[in-house]
Structures are given as C-alpha cells and as structure tokens.
Design a protein that fits this description.
This protein has a single domain, classed as Rossmann fold (3-Layer(aba) Sandwich). Strands 2-7-1-8-9 form a five-stranded parallel β-sheet, with helices on both faces. It has a four-stranded mixed β-sheet with strand order 4-3-6-5. It has 194 residues and is of the alpha/beta class. Strand 5 and strand 6 form a beta hairpin. Bound molecules: guanosine-5'-monophosphate. The site of guanosine-5'-monophosphate (5GP) has 15 residues, from strand 5, strand 6 and helix 5. Guanosine-5'-monophosphate binds next to strand 5, strand 6 and helix 5.
C-alpha cells in the first residue's frame, strides 16, 4: 500500500515549480491537453491584478487581498504564499475532490507553496523547470514586458531564490528547446498516468 492509498486518494499530485518566465504554464497546459481528462490543472486564486488577456476563472480566480485573507481564515487553501507581493493559493476543495475522483492534479506553484504541500502530500511528484541560463531567463522575463521595472527586478531577485530550491525536486527539466521540454514532461507523466 502506498501513501496515495493510505489517504484514499486515487489520483496523483504533480507539483511544477521554477522561476517566473521559465515556461511552466506552457508546459503544464501541454500536459493537461495531452492527458485530458485524466490530468487536470488546479486554477489558483490570486490577489494579483489580471494581465491583459487573462480571464477570471481561466488562468486564475482573481480576488481582492481582503477576500483572500478571509479565505485563508476559512482554511480554503491547501497551501498559499505571498509571491512578488501578491497572494497566491491552491483551493483545497478542488484538489481533494479531483484526487478522490481518481484524476491527477497539476499544481503550477512557487517553491514556498511547493514545500508546504509536499509536507502534506509527501508522495507528490515534484518537477522543477530550469532555464538554459540565468541570462536567458532575464531576456525572457524582459521580453514578456508585462510588468513594471520594479516588478521586473523583484521577479529576477525571486528567480535566483527559486533556483536555489531545485535540489528539493525529484525531476528537473531544462526548457531550452520547448518541444524537447514538452517531451520530457510527457515522459514523466507517462510513468504515472495510464
Ligand atoms: P504569475 O503572477 O507570473 O502568474 O505567477 C507568479 C508565481 O506564482 C509563479 O511562480 C507561479 O507558479 C506562482 N503561483 C501561481 N499560483 C500559485 C499558488 O496557488 N500557490 C503558490 N504558492 N504559488 C503560485
């Protein structure tokens, strides 16, 4: 009997982390499409302001800081963290409902949240996405250019901190060539998803 059986949860939990701009979301979207309907994406709640093109309920559930703080008190998050000055959290109900239904859930979360949830779900499959180099990551973040200069600096500083956690993850993927990185992600998921 493994930990997953002990918790009577039938689905696996996949945690994907890596610095901002490394391509986590593209890779997660690819996996969810490839393995649908067995693998589902956990839509996080955030107090961050939506960027152009983002829709409430799609990329994130957007809320105010106050609403987020109320939800923390109600124990509505399996984990939450403050990243780049905004709150981000994983809704607990979605996670447990999906896993209990036998679906596998992908979390695209920062390292702080990943460490917290790994404590609760030690059997979670931990994947870290790396840039080919820090310089390349900086270029990508600058190219995205959706953030103010201050927020950009904050993201770069945070990226260095995030990178220092990579040893805590069982799998690492270098996202240099996107197609290769997608194939590597698929290989990892194929080990667990029938
Ligand atoms: P962005 O603002 O660029 O969409 O996301 C910023 C960071 O927050 C990313 O590293 C992303 O993985 C992380 N993040 C997104 N959702 C969550 C969440 O629910 N919990 C935690 N801890 N981090 C999250």
């Amino acid at each position: 009997m493994n930990d997953r059986d002990n918790k009577s949860q039938k689905g696996y939990l996949f945690i994907v982390s890596g610095p901002s701009g490394v391509g986590k979301t593209v890779l997660c979207n690819h996996i969810v499409k490839k393995f649908a309907p067995k693998v589902v994406y956990s839509i996080s709640t955030t107090s961050r302001v939506p960027r152009g093109g983002e829709t409430d309920g799609q990329e994130y559930n957007f809320c105010t800081s106050q609403e987020f703080e109320t939800a923390i008190k109600q124990n509505a998050f399996a984990e939450w963290a403050s990243v780049h000055g905004n709150y981000y959290g994983t809704p607990r109900k979605f996670l447990t409902d999906e896993m209990n239904s036998g679906r596998h859930v992908v979390l695209n979360i920062d390292v702080q949240g990943a460490m917290k949830i790994h404590g609760e779900y030690p059997e979670a499959i931990m994947i870290f996405i790396l840039p080919p180099s820090f310089e390349e990551l900086e270029n990508r973040i600058r190219k995205r250019n959706m953030d103010s200069e201050k927020s950009l600096k904050n993201r770069l500083e945070n990226a260095r901190k995030e990178l220092s956690y990579k040893e805590k993850y069982k799998y690492t993927i270098v996202n240099d060539d996107l197609e290769l990185a997608k194939a590597e992600m698929e290989n990892i998921f194929s080990e667990f998803v029938d």
